[in-house]
Write a structure and sequence with these properties.
The protein is of the alpha/beta class. The protein is built from 17 helices and 12 strands.
């Protein structure tokens, strides 16, 4: 297979499963290169204070895996997965400013543009319908103005925000807690594919890696690191979203929170963040002010979006409000046949203008 490259040695280290970002950086600073790390003897490793005995034993055990990892690396490149190290020109410069910066990244699609604003839109997996709608709405409105939406592709708020962004043609980026080719949860597979087209997928974990519980808190620092601001839509008192918010504050980022009812457990985390000084978000304008984007652009985009609706779509849309209406009632008001009405409602739902909270009941999305 020819001479071993520095990237292949780095990939070998990334697949050990027990050497994370901090220890990898310490090893690199000590040895000078990933090749030198690979060639370190057991006695030398034992004298390094930041390695445990199990680390030393593990390094010895995986020493013979290099040929296997090189074959995997070659296949990975054929599959369109890029492998980045901190010294690579494409490596995100935002991540170089955090203490435990990733020493390797797997990428499918594009990386966030460091010259454009980016916001992390995160929250509860088991969110309410209101939280899901708000996340999707914020994702769409911010993306329309060119703000990149970043989150973890999780169920609930994360996925809803990214879905809102890609539906309107905006850029979204997902940082996974699983292998770069492992979509978790599986129900977000369609979104996983759409994000690759409109933005990109990133992970510290290589092909085939399972979504282990400890991966998710680790990936949160990448989400906040890539973002200029973090927006928390719904979160319980003890939530992974609050970990991301704390990391964002440590990194000097702005934190926004959507306020909620005092008695709602899913609003306890957001209300707590606001008490601690997080900015309140009640509309996209609050975030746009932070990014210094004129709010008139937002109103202009809304108007343009309404203008592109066809005549029959506008007629059906005008029949709806915040209270769910049954299909038969919409047919009576609009004067359309069942087939025509169903076709228009399906189109409006796909475009993100309406929701179907119950079977054959329709309502406008929150504005």
């Amino acid at each position: 297979m020819g001479n071993v490259t520095e990237a292949e040695y780095c990939y070998w280290l990334s697949r050990t499963g027990f050497i994370g970002a901090v220890k990898a950086r310490q090893l690199l600073e000590y040895a000078g290169s990933f090749e030198a790390i690979y060639n370190m003897k057991k006695q030398e490793l034992k004298h390094l204070p930041f390695l445990r005995e199990s680390d030393v034993t593990g390094m010895e055990a995986v020493h013979l895996d290099l040929d296997l990892r090189r074959r995997e690396y070659a296949q990975m490149k054929k599959d369109g997965i890029r492998f980045l190290m901190p010294g690579d020109p494409e490596y995100p410069k935002q991540l170089k400013n955090i203490y435990d910066m990733p020493m390797w990244l797997f990428v499918k699609g594009k990386l966030p543009d460091s010259e454009r604003p980016a916001a992390a839109l995160i929250g509860a997996r088991s969110c309410t319908d209101y939280g899901r709608q708000e996340a999707e709405y914020l994702g769409k409105e911010l993306a329309l103005l060119g703000i990149q939406i970043i989150s973890g592709l999780a169920r609930g708020v994360d996925g809803a925000g990214q879905d809102g962004a890609v539906r309107c043609g905006g850029a979204a980026y997902a940082v996974l807690g699983s292998g770069i080719d492992v979509c978790y949860p599986r129900t977000n597979l369609k979104l996983y594919k759409a994000i690759q087209e409109k933005g990109g997928i990133l992970s510290e974990y290589g092909p085939g890696e399972s979504p282990l519980a400890w991966h998710f808190p680790c990936r949160n620092r990448i989400i906040s690191g890539l973002s200029d601001a973090v927006i928390v839509v719904e979160a319980r008192k003890k939530s992974g979203s609050l970990i991301t918010a704390d990391l964002a504050l440590e990194q000097g980022k702005e934190v926004f929170a959507l306020p909620g009812r005092r008695t709602d457990p899913l609003s306890a985390g957001c209300n707590g963040l606001i008490r601690q000084g997080a900015a309140i978000v009640t509309a996209p304008d609050d975030i746009l002010e932070f990014f210094r984007i004129k709010c008139k652009n937002l109103r202009k985009d809304k108007k343009n979006a309404e203008n592109i609706l066809a005549k029959t779509e506008k007629m059906v849309y005008s029949c709806l409000d915040s209270q769910p209406k049954h299909l038969e009632e919409i047919m009576q008001i609009s004067g359309l046949s069942l087939a025509e009405c169903m076709d228009v409602l399906l189109g409006l739902e796909r475009k993100g203008y309406i929701l179907q909270p119950l079977n054959q009941y329709y309502t406008r999305k929150l504005e």
